[in-house]
Amino acid sequence: MKIAIVTFHDANNYGAVLQCHALAKTLNSLGHEVELADLPLHGKASNFRAGLRAKVLASAFSHFRVNFLPKVSKSDDGIDTYVFGSDQIWNVQITKEHYHLYFGAEVSPEIMKVAYAASYGLATWDFPEYTNNVKSYLGSFKAIGVRESTAVDICKDVFDVTSQKVVDPTLLLTDYSHLFTPRKKVGSLVCYIFGKTPEKMQQIRRLGTASSLKPILLSDLRVRKGIKSVPFPTVSKWLSYIEASEFVLTDSFHCMVFSILFKKNFIAIPAVPERAGRMKSLLNDLGLESRFFNSLEEALQSNVVSENIDFDKVAERIGTLREDSLVFLKKSLENN
Predict the structure, then answer these.
(1) What is the rounded distance in angstroms from the CA atom of residue 263 to the CA atom of residue 91?
(2) DSSP label at 224?
């Protein structure tokens, strides 16, 4: 069948484009033709400096979009099914005035709707003004797969719909070697964080000393003492740095995922505490709760740097979750 994916494919964000690629590639492997739905997001206020930075950042993603993402569909013509997900497409703090589009409000009734690993972003639903509309939209879905345990509860308790927890699309693929060239391993502590405060920079230096590793900060423009900055890496380069690292520090969900897939010891901290549910949910499923800390300072007070992850056990758990998620996806897309 011909499927259109509804997700944030146009965001200049490593996790956003990689989960989109993974889901599209998985659907292709199941025999489906895949396109991307062209949906808007709310506009962002911007000054000249921010606009220039956005343009430069976009260039880091252009090659990946051209070569590894499906084409963008401008209409419903020929579409048999819409697959909604992954990412925080159901977080109305992000979609704002366009929220209804990400719940399928304007999809023709004869076209099947399925959600795969959709996320509300938050652990609770605190938007009563949208509840009745969203409940109506979700009631028309054939199947709903969500990414976090809390999302299963929201579906049941708030919207009275049944859902199943499935893995993020990036965990459906077993091999990402087609996306990057391996980098030489040089004993690096790779850091990918959104909040680059002076305090965190000092903590990163302390972590580098404690681990005897050289700190490398991805997507950073500044010259910093004792820390190598890598500005605007391409998707390929971003992956290659994580794969070549000895240890990873991140407040990004998808950087954490690729640390796990590439079998790297890591520390995960929340960028936004109220959105930490997706990290905690996956880590709990994989038996890796001990790798999550509320702050980098908390991590520095622990022995996590000297503790190695048993990735054989982790791989077994991922395999089971992947298999269950693929069964859900295949069954959801059956025409019946």
Answers:
(1) 30
(2) B
Encode pLDDT of 31-60 as tens digits: 999 999 999 876 555 555 556 667 777 888
Q: Do β-strands 247-250 and 228-230 pair in parallel, antiparallel, or remain unpaired?
A: unpaired
Q: How far, in Å, CA of 175 to CA of 324, rounded?
A: 18
Among candidate residues 54, 63, 61, the one with its CA nearest the CA of residue 17: 61
Which helix (DSSP H) or strand (DSSP E) does residue 3 occupy? Answer: strand 2-6
Is the Cβ–Cβ distance between 263 and 237 less than 8 Å?
Answer: no
* Token duo for residue 286: 């994989």
Using CA atoms, how far apart are residues 190 and 165, in angstroms rounded to an integer? 30
And the tokens for 151?
């999302």
Q: Rounded to the nearest 10 degrees, how much is the dihedral formed by the CA atoms of 240, 243, 248, 252? A: 60
3-state secondary structure of 73: strand
CB atoms within 10 A of CB 144: 24
How far is the first Cα of the chain from the last one, in angstroms, to the nearest whole number?
13
**Percent of the chain at pLDDT above 70?**
96
When the pLDDT of each residue in the chain is averaged and rounded to a whole number, the result is: 93
3-state secondary structure of 322: helix
- Cβ neighbours of residue 276 closer than 8 Å, sequence gap 6 or more: 270, 292
